[in-house]
Specification:
two-stranded antiparallel ribbon, 40% helix, globular, 15% strand, five-stranded mixed beta sheet, 204 residues, alpha/beta
């Protein structure tokens, strides 16, 4: 690879041959990000993470749930990415072990645009995760509650009023389960607020 070449922020096999990409990674010139690679002087941020998903998801798809949490840098990359499409488009998507696609009525509601890639906003991501996950075992449930709390704060909120209101509108079993999860998030906020900080050193 030429030393002074100007490389795109996100590299794929359409930019360089796979052997060349692997060699550049071994040389410390690029690093793997999702299903793509980035030059080492390019930050691992939401925009670049979102762009790596264009290799997997169809056009007009929106990254959601675990994939959105990963794009925001709040969770590990999922083995199977999650996206949604407009249910009215009736598009056929080839099956893939790396991609789960669902259809929704409001695909672009409450989403953000990262250089042409749509991603559900943090609060919607929290609501979607709280609604979609079945009851989990204690360790997994605790990790989900912690992720929901992080997403709510990332969305600029310190309370659960807005996500709980969205869940209440559903008036369903999964809506009630999601509300219970956000109640646990609120308790987590209160516990963290009331927990004593490190003791001040004693001055002698």
């Amino acid at each position: 690879m030429p030393p002074n070449s100007r490389l795109p922020a996100v590299l794929t096999t359409q930019d360089l041959a796979l052997a060349e990409l692997c060699s550049a990674r071994l040389d410390g010139e690029i690093y793997a990000l999702g299903d793509a690679w980035c030059p080492i002087d390019v930050s691992d941020g939401p925009a670049n993470r979102a762009r790596t998903l264009t290799l997997l998801m169809p056009s007009a798809a929106v990254a959601e749930r675990a994939s959105a949490a990963w794009i925001y840098g709040l969770a590990p990359e999922p083995a199977c990415h999650e996206v949604h499409l407009d249910s009215r488009a009736r598009r056929h998507v080839a099956p893939s072990v790396r991609l789960h696609v669902r259809e929704v009525n409001d695909p672009f509601a409450d989403t953000l645009d990262f250089e042409g890639v749509r991603v559900t906003a943090p609060l919607r991501t929290a609501v979607d995760l709280a609604l979609c996950r079945h009851q989990l075992g204690d360790p997994e449930e605790a990790r989900l509650i912690a992720l929901l709390a992080t997403l709510v704060r990332y969305g600029g909120r310190q309370d659960i009023d807005e996500p709980s209101r969205r869940c209440e509108l559903l008036n369903s079993v999964r809506g009630q389960r999601a509300i219970a999860r956000f109640t646990a998030v609120q308790k987590l906020f209160e516990d963290q607020k009331n927990s004593p900080g490190p003791e001040a050193p004693i001055r002698r």
